[in-house]
Amino acid sequence: MNIVSEIAQLGAPVLRMQAEVVSDVHDNEILQLIVAMQNTLAATSGVGIAAPQIGQSKRIIIVASRPTPRYPLAPLMEPTVMINPGFYALSSEQEKDWEGCLSIPGIRALVPRSVEIMITYTDQNGILVQASLSRFVARIFQHEFDHLEGKTYLDRVENNGDIYAESEYFKLIASDV
Ligand code: NI
């Protein structure tokens, strides 16, 4: 049975908490949480989700870049569950691009992020993985990682003029193509 969880909305205290480290990736509650995150993400057109977004303050994210109506130009990748993720920037280069968030419906904004990053995480088998990410997938990772630190992308917007209603954002990208 695919149970889809309610997504915490901006203002919910769980989105402002430092999430807890996962000590046992094989714990049954953690397995259930991951399944709930997978089901919930699959029911949306989002490209990533963090455990706090379904009300669980644990350090787990899923990065799942794919072309969707929300992100038509996103590269396709296998959805990846990342437990206790960490990262550092591989260069000082940052770029601003559009982000949205399932916890902040109807809004998009330009957000500066590192372009090239090195990440580490524990996978569902308990294996420590290291990988480099770039561009849009690196952006998704940094966005989801922020949720584990109690931050949203709005906290990283440089000025209010970079915040758009989603309807205006769609007009803008339609006129770009
Ligand atoms: Ni988000």
In this entry the ligands are: nickel (II) ion
- Model regions low in confidence, pLDDT < 50 over at least 5 residues: none
Q: Looking at the structure, what is the overall shape?
A: globular
What spatial order of strands do you see in the largest sheet? 1-2-3-6-7
What is the CATH-assigned architecture?
Alpha-Beta Complex
Order of helices and strands: HEEEEEEEHEH
Describe the structure.
- The protein has 177 residues and is α+β, with helices and mostly antiparallel strands.
- It has a single domain, classed as Peptide deformylase (Peptide Deformylase).
- The chain is 23% helix and 30% strand.
- It contains 3 helices and 8 strands.
- The strands form 2 sheets. The protein has a 5-stranded antiparallel sheet with strand order 1-2-3-6-7. Strands 4-5-8 form a 3-stranded antiparallel sheet.
- It is globular, with a radius of gyration of 16 Å.
- The model has no long low-confidence stretch (mean pLDDT 94).
- The site of nickel (II) ion has 5 residues, from α2.
Question: Secondary structure elements and their pairing?
Answer:
Blueprint (H helix, E strand, L loop, with lengths): L27 H15 L5 E3 L9 E4 L16 E10 L4 E8 L2 E11 L1 E7 L5 E7 H14 L14 E3 H11 L1
Antiparallel strand pairs: 1-2, 2-3, 3-6, 4-5, 5-8, 6-7
Bound molecules: nickel (II) ion (NI).
Distinctive features:
177 residues, five-stranded antiparallel sheet, alpha+beta, binds nickel (II) ion, Peptide Deformylase
Write a compact overview of the structure shown:
With 177 residues, the chain is α+β, with helices and mostly antiparallel strands. The chain is 23% helix and 30% strand. The chain has a five-stranded antiparallel sheet with strand order 1-2-3-6-7. Strands 4-5-8 form a three-stranded antiparallel sheet.
